Amino acid sequence: RYLADNDKPIDYMVMAETSGENLTKIGGLQYLTQLAGAVPTTANFDLYQSMVRKAYIKRRASRTLRDLADIGESGEMDANEYVSTIQAAAEDISELTEADQSDVVKMSDVLKDHDKELIQRRQQRGLTGAKTASVELDRMTGGHQDGDLEVVAARPSMGKTAYIVNDMIETARGGRPAALFSLEMPAKKVSERAICILGNIDNAKLRTGNLDEAEWERWSYAMDELERLPLFIDDTPGMTLQQIGAKVKRLKKKYSRLVVYIDFLQLVNPGRKFSKEHEGVAYVSKGLKQIARKNECPVVAISAVGRQCESRQDKRPMLSDLRESGSIESDADVVIFLYRDDYYNPDSNKKGIVELIVAKGRNVGTGTIEMVFNKKTGRFLNIDRSKEGAAYERKTDRK
Asked: Residue 229: what pLDDT?
């Protein structure tokens, strides 16, 4: 490798000279001569290389299994941590075998049947992925794209979870199954939020059960629609990255057009020990991106935002405000910040308006989209730009 990197001819004489005092450590000149003569023909070199690589993978797998067995017998880890370690090791080895199967292909082959794809895009009016909560965001991004990691970030009380639930509902209405891994809120509370959004019901009234006749009717409608929509939730406490990956893989086999949601990124257990918290978060961020790519599905993750933005005059978040921003910012294909001006300014002329700030959009650009946010029901509504200053509920919304 050293000779190749330095553009030197690769033969046993040059190798012997370059090795210097280390020549005896690698077998001496006699061994190099035998090694050079051991290759019957270079025509089959790719096959020989593959044989060596496969032997390496088997040897590494065997060594890993022995090491894991020793760790298990020592009792140093609890059961969950031990299982996560096994899953992570298996993924590392699996990546080696996947890399072995990859190959360089012609660009023209990648675009096979491209004309049919373009016609389909036109028929879908630019919506090439799963629907989002915003019509304008759909136009801007084409929807949630398979293989992408999207991050929705905001300070507390901006409506992150409410936005994600609205987004899931629109995704499901568009025919794509949506699964939420909720590490912050119990499944029942999130599901009740979905009922309030679907039925346009006040959250406080649902909590107390104090519904009038019209609200009971809307509750019944919401329950029927929730039953009909392909919406799923898992609120297992302390889920590790490896557990989420395994569950997504199983769901993907059953629902090929799956969209995955994570609430939220900083609560995902990396399944490994790290000396610093930000290293664990960076590991999770990269892992979620890999889950998106391996399963060819969108992964939408909520992320926390540091409090430094609140010390500025303009409190709108920026990419540098992302907690552990270095990794999250680089791993994410799309980063959307939520901002409510009326949260900070009681006299704001944007009461009830949430800004969706697309701070990073790989292949789609950046920009700001406004939506109406009804805090009582948790509903996010599109703004009708054809009627000046008026916000209205889309015609597809009922009751």
From this structure: 92
Q: Which residues pair with 231 in a beta bridge?
A: 178
Please name which of 334, 330, 380, 335 lies closest in space to residue 353, comparing C-alpha atoms: 380
**Site of tokens 């391996």:** 294
What per-residue string of b and e applies to 333-343 under the rule 16 or more CB within 10 Å gives b?
bbbbbbbbbbb
Please identify every stretch of the chain with a pLDDT value under 50, giving residue numbers as ranges. Answer: 388-399
Q: What's the pLDDT score for residue 342?
A: 86
* pLDDT value for 180: 94
Residue with tokens 């794809």: 117
